[in-house]
Write a structure and sequence with these properties.
mainly alpha, disordered C terminus
Length: about 400
């Protein structure tokens, strides 16, 4: 167990090392994926993502990643509300364009696979990939409010639909029921948190936790995450929805920066890098070598997804519109989940499953280029309105204190 854990932790260090330049083009997640590919099924075989311990680490990493992503979506932020209409239009345009294109790709390049899977994949975005890159560029704020609406909407829509294209019809009601329970649990946690978070008893416990080192708020946050994830695993619901819901609760309650730092340490210091390393270790590139149609499928999915998102951003996004489109096109968690579920149910061949994951991987580098373009434009001196300046003094004091 610890030997495998050691390999995963060392592999996770590759990402920051490759992204350590002053103006890095490659984000840390790509380095972590490369390390996973080299040490996993396609390389040395030192990492087996299917072992019970690694499967647990994979699930926790994905849930933690989505919690961090959801915590950046403040539903009360003025910039987010102003971008809600544009984000909804963008997500709708992508869905409309993805249907005919995805059906055509599936019928020509993967005739044995479920035909509706490919429109869903093309319509997807990935907060799990895009939000860490945006955060790494210092772009989480009203300036990219369009993306903070567009990506979660596409994420939730496609994550709800994707399993329905691969599982049997008998399991669809159970999966939908699980997602409904997750939503109900999220709403319930928001309602309860709003009522007790600022009570005298809660404030006293918070102060004692800070002075005595209990990390009580972190424990409660992890409790919400695990409960929602448990509902997802028991009912066939979406772990992405569970993690994102827990993050929304955290953002809604406006918890202090101290908790954000704690979550950043536990999530981005361990669980999230492990998740990306394990995704890379699952990718079987050897199965693509003897199947030219699978290679074309990966290229077609990546190119079509980028083109569709760029077309939508051209309609609704402000300059630089290409940066918004490239960032929204990034996805990895959805293709990985589709490949895993498809292999488990027998709906996808190993070559097609690998092509789907590879197609998602090919969107990450363009997303990095797009976010770099956004950072160059929005971080200009005249862009103070986008909230990209130095952190408030009180936040700095809270972190360092």
């Amino acid at each position: 167990m610890f030997d495998s854990l050691l390999v995963i932790i060392v592999a996770g260090l590759v990402g920051p090392l490759l992204a350590a330049g002053r103006r890095p083009l490659i984000p840390a997640v790509i380095g972590e994926l490369i390390a996973g590919i080299g040490l996993g099924r396609s390389g040395l075989g030192l990492i087996d993502a299917t072992t019970p311990a690694n499967a647990l680490l994979y699930g926790l990493g994905f849930a933690m990643l989505m919690l961090v992503a959801g915590s950046h979506v403040d539903l009360r932020a003025p910039g987010l509300r102003a971008s809600a209409r544009a984000g909804a239009i963008a997500a709708g345009l992508v869905a409309l364009l993805s249907l005919p294109v995805g059906l055509a790709i599936g019928s020509v390049l993967a005739p044995g696979a479920p035909s509706l899977l490919f429109p869903v994949l093309l319509a997807g975005s990935s907060a799990a990939v895009a939000f860490p890159i945006l955060q790494e560029r210092g772009l989480i704020g009203p300036g990219v409010g369009l993306l903070l609406v567009w990506i979660p909407l596409a994420d939730v829509f496609t994550v709800l639909l994707m399993p329905l294209t691969l599982i049997g019809a008998a399991k669809i009601p159970e999966a939908l029921g699980g997602d409904a329970l997750i939503v109900a649990g999220t709403v319930g946690a928001l309602w309860l948190g709003e009522r007790i978070a600022h009570s005298q008893r809660a404030m006293t416990l918070r102060d004692r936790s800070q002075t005595r080192g209990w990390a009580l708020q972190l424990r409660v946050t992890l409790l919400i995450l695990v409960v929602l994830s448990l509902i997802a695993t028991r009912t066939g619901g979406s772990t992405l929805l569970a993690g994102f819901g827990a993050g929304l609760v955290l953002a809604r309650l406006r918890e202090p920066t101290r908790l954000e730092v704690q979550l950043s340490g536990i999530a981005e210091g361990f669980f999230v890098p492990a998740f990306f390393v394990l995704i890379g270790s699952e990718l079987d590139l050897r199965s693509l070598a003897g199947d030219p149609s699978a290679i074309l499928l990966a290229l077609a999915l990546a190119a079509s997804g980028l083109a569709i998102h760029l077309a939508a951003s051209r309609v609704v996004a402000p300059p630089p519109w290409s940066g918004f489109g490239l960032a929204a096109a990034a996805q990895l968690g959805l293709p990985a989940a589709a490949a895993s579920l498809g292999l488990g149910t027998g709906a996808l061949s190993p070559a097609v499953a690998a092509a789907i994951v590879l197609g998602g991987c090919l969107t990450v580098l363009p997303a990095a280029i797009g976010t770099r373009r956004l950072a160059d434009v929005l971080a200009a001196p005249s862009s103070g309105e986008f909230g990209l300046g130095p952190a408030p003094a009180e936040h700095v004091q809270e972190i360092t204190g």
